[in-house]
Amino acid sequence: MPPVNNVTRFLDSHKVSYTVFETPAEKLGAREVAEFLNIPLETVFKTIVVRRDKPKKPVLAVVPGPSTVDLKSLAAFLDDKKIYLPTEREAEQLTGLKAGGISPLAMINKGFQVVIDSTAQNYSEIHVSGGQKGLNIKLPVADLINLTKARIASVCQNTDSF
Question: Helices (H) and strands (E) in the chain — how many of each?
């Protein structure tokens, strides 16, 4: 039986079609998740916590596995002068989740603004963290956008070759 947590219960309560994948419980990057699940790296989206200079809501940038957040593009999109990547420890303190398990689905109604990179719209479904290490969820992009009230923008830069 697949694992159940707050994220899967939330998806069930909203009647979202999704698939749960268990991965090793240690912190895995997008590349390791893609290799473990034998899926294309560009369909594994990672959630990056971003702090703002001014005391506004923190941001969760959801970007494809082979990419990093383009802080200048994200700042411009958010109409902020400066944004920062917190340390892993700071990200864990801001979210209450362990790195490797930070998920936009686990942060709904917790004051985080979600920005999903526009490349997600190239796919009907993508993979995101399930809110804990070792749990990956594949779900329709449209459902992820609707549930998280995400905004869509080009906010990543490619760091890998596909």
Answer: 5, 10
Q: How many CB atoms lie within 10 A of CB 14?
A: 11
Give the list of residues 6+ apart from residue 35 with CB closer than 8 angstroms, or none: none
Give the model confidence (pLDDT) of 99-113 as tens digits: 888 999 999 989 899
H helices of 24-139, in order, are 30-37, 71-78, 88-95
For residue 109, the tally of other CB atoms under 10 A from its CB is 7
Please tell me the distance from the alpha carbon of residue 28 to that of residue 109, in angstroms, as a whole number. 26
At 125 the pLDDT is 97
Q: Which pair of structure tokens corresponds to residue 132?
A: 């804990």
How far are the Cα atoms of 94, 125, 146 from residue 141, in angstroms, in the given order?
A: 25, 5, 9
Q: What is the mean pLDDT of residues 127-133?
A: 92
